[in-house]
Specification:
The chain is an alpha/beta fold. The protein is built from five helices and five strands; from the N terminus they run αβααβαβββα.
Length: 195
């Protein structure tokens, strides 16, 4: 009958779920036996609101919060420190002073992964900006970078900007986030190889 067929299907689904749970639990109990290399990573989350993150008057205070959390003592030798997307609201690549300040907080041999803004050189027109991942070492050198390729519409760029500017007037419509320029998308997703 139809009723017993539905019961058999439901019973099979429950049995399959229980078998998957048992299999997963068994796999997880043996993870400790795999010899993974030790890699100590510090994730820094200062919980700075978007309004304060982009306030130029808060730039130094925000940076000092990140630096203080980065420099906390660790019982393990840190290999990587990870800051949030757009953690710094200035152009890190073009600011030697802030790079040297940040480098002092990075443990020797570790790398800092930070979200940061990048821009074309000041003399280059048109001006383009990117929402990027920068990797910096303790010698204040940017050793790798990646420009975000999939941007958030209305947050990081205004879709159909040229058409909307023609209809409503240039600059009338704005994206939801700080700044008047749209971010430029990176070329494509890519992996970064680091020691």
């Amino acid at each position: 009958s139809k009723y017993s067929f539905e019961r058999i299907i439901a019973l099979c689904v429950y049995l399959l779920a229980i078998l998957c749970w048992i299999w997963g639990k068994e796999r997880l109990t043996h993870v400790d036996s795999i010899d993974f290399p030790t890699l100590a990573v510090r994730v820094v989350q200062p919980n700075i609101t978007q309004v304060l993150k982009w306030d130029p008057k808060q730039q130094e205070a925000n940076l000092h919060t990140l630096l203080k959390m980065t420099a906390e003592p660790s019982t393990l030798p840190l290999k990587a420190i990870i800051w949030p997307e757009s953690a710094v609201s200035f152009f890190l690549e073009q600011n030697d002073f802030y790079r040297s300040l940040i480098a002092k907080a990075i443990p020797k041999g570790a790398l800092l992964f930070t979200g940061a803004l990048r821009r074309t050189p000041a003399e280059e027109k048109p001006v383009k900006i990117w929402n990027s991942l920068l990797v910096m070492n303790s010698q204040a050198q940017i050793v790798a970078s990646y420009d975000k390729s999939h941007l958030v519409p209305f947050g990081e760029y205004l879709p159909f900007r040229s058409s909307l500017d023609a209809i409503f007037g240039k600059g009338t419509l704005k994206k939801l986030t700080a700044g008047s320029l749209d971010f430029t998308p990176g070329k494509e997703p890519e992996s970064i190889s680091l020691p």
